[in-house]
Specification:
538 residues, alpha/beta, binds flavin-adenine dinucleotide
Amino acid sequence: MSVIEVPVTIVGGSLVGLSASALLARHGVRALVLERHSGTAIHPRAAHATQRTMEIFRSLDLETAIRERSAEQFIQDGGVVEVETLIGGATRQFIADLNAGIRDVSPCERVFLSQSSLEPLLMERARELGAEVRFSTEVTSIEEDSTGVTALLRDRESGAVSRVRSQYLIAADGAHSGVRRQVGIGMQGRSPFSRSVTIYFRADLRSLLCDRKWAVVYVNNPRLRGFFRFEKPFDSAFLAVNTEGDAAHPNTDIATDITPERALRFVAHALGSEAIPVTIESIMQWEAAAQSAERLQTRRVFIAGDAAHTMPPTGGFGGNTGVQDVHNLAWKLAQVLRGEAPAALLSTYEAERRPVAALSAEQAYTRYVLRTDPSLGPERCAPLVNDLNIELGYVYRSDGIVSEEPDDGATHSSPRESRARPGTRAPHVWLERRGCRLSSLDLYGSRFVLLAGPRADEWCRYARDASSEERIALDIARPGAEGLEDPAGNLSELHMIEPNGCVLVRPDGFVAWRARNAQTASAAAMRSVLIRAHGIAR
Ligand SMILES: Cc1cc2nc3c(=O)[nH]c(=O)nc-3n(C[C@H](O)[C@H](O)[C@H](O)COP(=O)(O)OP(=O)(O)OC[C@H]3O[C@@H](n4cnc5c(N)ncnc54)[C@H](O)[C@@H]3O)c2cc1C
């Protein structure tokens, strides 16, 4: 039997697996993606990419391509509303304009682009950067030992069986993850509360939608609860149906008896007319649950994406949370594989991402109860958290983060208020380098960065010394040095440092440590935080 050797194997080549391969490849790590389907996603499913996800795709040089494709496919800045029927018009508005009031916090905007259009872009970029993606290849089992992981593969076209040996494996194999089951990791949270369907259909909806700026439309009427998503040129769409009948005691099992005829009736009830010709193209079945994995790591296997957390689509958090998982993991794997950090750094993945998975799943559930199925009891849900906090304001705590005291323990905060507090995403500030505008976020991605105030000479000197003594790669970015300018002069204020303070930012753009001024500046202090952020025990 042939054996392939590669540093990282990724099981599952959909949104999260492909993102992982591109991010690893950008860090110079060769990854092999194994996907049992014969190509990328054929169904649109996820479409809402948050600002954070777009920041991650920006770091892969994909932002422009995604925006261009999105402009072809969706009304830009589309809103999210509720109707009784599409013909009847809006009864509630959740989001009037996708990007209104949030443009100050990021260089990127929220975008709608369906998974079926996004995945080919991700795959092409991953391959350009050096990743390998194999379709029609199923992983039938995995075995982990002290030096690596062996996966058994079956070519679904030829039936040929082979093995792949790698140092680490990422399970991005979806909600029914076989890898997660095999390594004995269970799920916790809220068990399935709906057996839902997504009905893909064709119908000429131009006259109903052409002057409405709607992208996602929740449907709430006595017959059914669910949501539509519309793409240009409004001759096709999907309707997800979660519950039907009496809203106080709904039928939550839509999938069991679904037929094209029932699907047609659901679409007619949601449109508010049987006179609009509709052709059903396909019907997908799925379970709505809000759960996260009990662990995200065995020694050499990492669980990510829907394999690590499932949540209803309400809010559009599922795929975004998965992309953030692998963004958190990729630079850590790269550092460990290059021998720049010990394996202990990898344990910060679970410490940092599990609370975020639980937060996102609970918040998606709260939105589901409030928007779709109040019979589940709003009083039994977590209080609603602002979308921006979930999308950009999640907080990490782990051995790799030097948290500041007092620590309120909150799992999220407003990205406008976090101001470079350790464990939060470093804020976005527009800067200039030799006349070109860049976001402070563009400084991060490859190596650790010491972002220093304009008079932080002392910290910069200690950082240079520590980085060469400890052989830790570190960039130093300081307004006034090497062509970098802070034209608005607000970098220090937005990072809550004095001009002689500094912030240590990780390759994923999260703050590992901050010194507000030079009071504690010393070689030992600098060396200690660099070592700690790299998971090195002394
Ligand atoms: C109707 C709907 C709308 C949604 N809208 C949004 C949205 O707007 N925004 C958002 O963020 N999320 C949304 N989601 C959720 C989003 O689709 C998922 O979170 C996302 O697809 C998860 O990606 P993933 O790569 O982790 O898993 P999946 O997309 O499930 O991919 C897993 C892949 O692994 C492969 N695989 C499984 N087992 C094996 C094996 N043994 N060997 C090889 N390959 C294997 C599968 O074939 C599959 O391709 C929506 C979901 C639905 C149902």
